[in-house]
Amino acid sequence: MRYHTILGSLAIVVSGCAMQPSASTSQEEKPAQPAPVAEQTAAAPASAQPAPQPVAAATPSEAPAAAPVAREPQEYEIQPGQCWVHAQVRPRPVQSTQEVVVKDSVNKITVTPAELEKGFKQVVTREGTKTYRIEPPTYRVVSEQVKVRPEVKRYIVVPAVYEDVKETVTLEEAKTVLDQCRAAGTRYSSGTGAMSFCARQVPAKQEVVKVKKLVSPETVRVETDPAQYKSVTRWIVDKPAQAIEVTLDPQYTKVASTEVVRPVEANQIILPEEKRQLKVTRFEGNARIVSRQTVCDPDINDDLVTRLQQSLVKRGFNPGSVDGKLGKRTLDALTEFQTANGLAVGALTLESLTALEVR
């Protein structure tokens, strides 16, 4: 097989033909010769068969209805003379417009001053209030027993008792491992990628350790010291203190004052808010790795590239000069188109030519 690199490290295009067995099994297998350039040019991409799709594959427009689950590997049937690429499908950008308020609405206020009038008014210089006259309390002497020390409980800890025993602990369970070996005729199937493995049993690893088993847990014994009392003499209130209410009258005086004849007035005008339209980009789907059939290098000619560039310009993607040369600007424009339409990026695939209507 011979390999051609398209767009740096983004994709590796495998160009070549399938291996065909020779007429005699005793002779060495030789690679089939690729089809003539003229035949490949006529066959791609107008007459090329559509890229085989994996069985039960979901269409690009279908969104997953549940959480992603493990998928079986996709298998394709490769035909002689075909070229394939292993590339990624990027999340598809979706453009929208969002309206943003850049300046809120504001009120413009016009104020008319208030009209004042001077005069005199009577002002309370000291407010009337109520106060109290206190009569002190009277006491009497009594004797009583007072607890000077409460009942005290003491806790005595009885230690736990353990017993030494031996236990067998499994450090590593028995397991089955696969070793690469030669079986099922794989030594004669080089180039197919098939490998064989032989199962081998690895015994468990164990160790005997000493363990302290609890015979009786730690406990607490309670001992109580009785309370202690003492006879004391104390004064208690015979008649509590009393508050007798006393009323004080307010005091007044005349002072110069200014009264409001007409209050201040404020009139407002509402200025509308200012808005701005912004372009917002969101992405649909997740990045995926897929296999797609591509145009082989011998089939890429100036006429095909020119039609590709014209189709990109028609759809709003800039490939630079329409000169029939598959350069960096043309590949960048093709990558932008593939990303916008949810296609595999980085190579001139047949699905991209179909989407661009390039025959």
TrEMBL record:
Biased composition (Low complexity): 35-71
Region feature (Disordered): 22-72
Occurrences of domain Peptidoglycan binding-like (ranges): 302-345
Protein name: Peptidoglycan binding domain-containing protein
Organism: Pseudomonas straminea
Lineage, top ranks: Bacteria, Pseudomonadati, Pseudomonadota, Gammaproteobacteria, Pseudomonadales
